[in-house]
Amino acid sequence: MPKKQIPHFENEAQEAEWWYQNQDFIVEQFEEAAATGKLQHGTAVRIARERAAQSGASPTITIRLPEADLAKARELAAKKGLRYQTYLKMLIHEALEHESKNI
pTM of the entire structure? Predict the structure, then answer.
């Protein structure tokens, strides 16, 4: 996979736009590195390894959602620079953690 240089940014908005425009490329590089055992040290690597060690591969599930909820999830995920599936997994995880503390 070709290397992509991270440019110098004049401001946060410019940096955010670059990361948003290149998110698929970044995810592909990360997944390829994870699959080939070439991840380096850092927060993202540490979290990925911890999650992999704890749970193994995530099972694939199907959830039916109203179109309006799915559209809102996509909109909010895009604003955060995330894929909507990742955003929904984050929300579910946070809600489960919150609920488990309140029971």
Answer: 0.47
